[in-house]
Amino acid sequence: xxxxxxxxxxxxxxxxxxxxxxxxxxxxxxxxxxxxxxxxxxxxxxxxxxxxxxxxxxxxxxxxxxxxxxxxxxxxxxxxxxxxxxxxxxxxxxxxxxxxxxxxxxxxxxxxxxxxxxxxxxxxxxxxxxxxxxxxxxxxxxxxxxxxxxxxxxxxxxxxxxxxxxxxxxxxxxxxxxxxxxxxxxxxxxxxxxxxxxxxxxxxxxxxxxxxxxxxxxxxxxxxxxxxxxxxxxxxxxxxxxxxxxxxxxxxxxxxxxxxxxxxxxxxxxxxxxxxxxxxxxxxxxxxx
Length: 289
Prior knowledge:
The chain is an alpha/beta fold. The protein has one domain (4-288): Rossmann fold. The protein has helices spanning 38-41, 76-85, 90-101, 116-123, 135-146, 208-217, 245-254; strands at residues 4-5, 12-13, 27-28, 31-32, 107-110, 128-132, 151-157, 160-165, 175-179, 192-197, 219-229, 258-273, 276-288. The strands form 4 sheets. Strands 9-6-5-10-11-13-12 form a 7-stranded mixed β-sheet. It has a two-stranded antiparallel ribbon with strand order 1-2. The protein has a two-stranded antiparallel sheet with strand order 3-4. Helix 3 (90-101) packs parallel to helix 4. The longest helix is centred in the N-terminal third of the chain and has 12 residues, at 90-101.
């Protein structure tokens, strides 16, 4: 089992076992908090409610990230386009990269959000770890993927909600979550065969290089790093702004990784509610140590 490394002293944590009261770090909903200041995270403990507030998890809803565009029910021409896309999402592209190129061994989803990519990594047959800085997102991801959440609330219109059953087959083994920082992942170097970085890497600002370096160090020889960037298509991006891919590729080269494949303009669909959809186009990159 992969060991947790305490970022405060560099020593390994013992393997986390749910229900063990002797663990030397706090937990939220059974999830270890492995940050430089773990106690400060406890202020964000989610509500003990059957339907967690997804707004605290920073997503419009918990289900859409797990669905193919064709399953979103969009009307008219948009719906027809979604059906044509099939499962052609950034997560499916990154997952296909991992299945094709990554050597045998455990996987890690950095910035897991509500666990859409985590689910793909785990169901590919790998022991999978996932973490995010947002405790609400991690708690929601764990509940969704392990079958602990029977239903969720889905927005139907502005101010409207409906209860839906979680359309995800529970994952009952080889899946572990923690709360941690992307620039200081609490794992030993060289232990993962595949590391995925969430597509919101663009929002990290000056920390992008630090995060990519930290994630690259987690890879075993021959290990794979996958990530996506939605730089020039995201809300608020300045027209003609310098795309950061060249900067990403330069960092990747400096840490000893080699880009082996990439795909551009992969549509990412965000469902805000019925008849309100946002489409962003992202660039998926895969590099090998």
